């Protein structure tokens, strides 16, 4: 996906030509952060972005990947014929299925509009993994937030049993604002060394399921528990704008 930013300078004199600079940004599809400030060069690299996952994923890609030859039933053809054949199939289908979906954010949005138009079902190659959040929400319920919401509002962030930067190298860059104070508490794991904000770690060597059960008993049932760290954190959560993260 390309985002276009236009920068325009006002002319100093009536005869001076206005200079317009257009810069295109690409949305990275390689992790759920969907960073949209990527400026790719012709070699498919992003030298100005410090992200190991982005660099590794781009290194596996080739410019030829974006120029796949259209085909019909395995036989090479031109794009116009392939699109016409696909349109004919969709117009006659009663329950179309669009699967695979090995594309970027822009391609996925286009496929979603196409599926909505024809009443089709979308099934991603890794649909089971994508459905994990849905299954958890059906079982216990869930709520969601956005990175910008965390960045602009949270003054206490609770990270539970994970190290975000291992899978999402730019995680803290996206959720922490250097102009605002936001403390980070890691529960059931060591503090993430990539986190530059004030942070602490509690209950590092405990089982996460036991910790959740104990915490739930204290918060939901008001039971007394033998964990000073959880009791203190619970009181702090009640007085802070808090966002909990499990990634």
Describe this protein's structure.
- By secondary structure, this protein is α/β, with parallel strands linked by helices.
- The protein folds into 3 domains: 2-9 and 17-64, no CATH class; 80-142, no CATH class; 143-245.
- The chain is built from 10 helices and 10 strands.
- It has helices at residues 52-60, 79-92, 105-118, 127-130, 132-140, 147-153, 164-167, 171-175, 208-221, 228-239; strands spanning 2-8, 20-26, 71-72, 75-76, 97-100, 121-124, 156-160, 183-187, 199-202, 242-245.
- The strands form 4 sheets. The protein has a 4-stranded parallel beta sheet with strand order 9-8-7-10, covered by helices on one side. Strands 1-2 form a two-stranded antiparallel ribbon.
- The longest helix is centred in the middle third of the chain and has 14 residues, at 79-92.
């Amino acid at each position: 996906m390309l985002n276009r930013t236009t920068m325009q300078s006002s002319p100093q004199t009536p005869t001076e030509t206005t200079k317009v600079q257009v810069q295109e940004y690409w949305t990275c599809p390689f992790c759920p952060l969907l960073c949209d400030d990527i400026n790719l060069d012709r070699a498919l690299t992003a030298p100005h972005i410090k992200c190991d996952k982005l660099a590794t994923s781009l290194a596996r890609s080739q410019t030829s990947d974006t120029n796949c030859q259209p085909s019909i039933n395995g036989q090479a053809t031109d794009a116009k014929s392939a699109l016409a054949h696909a349109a004919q199939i969709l117009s006659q289908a009663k329950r179309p299925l669009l699967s695979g979906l090995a594309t970027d954010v822009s391609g996925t949005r286009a496929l979603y509009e196409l599926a909505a138009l024809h009443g089709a079902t979308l099934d991603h190659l890794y649909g089971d993994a994508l459905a994990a959040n849905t299954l958890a929400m059906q079982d216990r319920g869930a709520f969601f937030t956005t990175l910008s919401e965390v960045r602009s509002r949270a003054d206490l962030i609770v990270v539970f049993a994970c190290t975000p930067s291992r899978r999402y190298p730019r995680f803290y860059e996206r959720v922490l604002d250097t102009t605002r104070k936001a403390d980070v508490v890691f529960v059931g794991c060591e503090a993430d060394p990539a986190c530059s904000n004030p942070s602490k770690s509690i209950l590092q060597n405990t089982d996460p399921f036991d910790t959740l059960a104990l915490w739930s008993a204290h918060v939901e049932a008001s039971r007394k528990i033998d964990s000073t760290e959880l009791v203190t954190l619970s009181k702090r959560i009640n007085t802070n704008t808090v966002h909990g993260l499990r990634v």
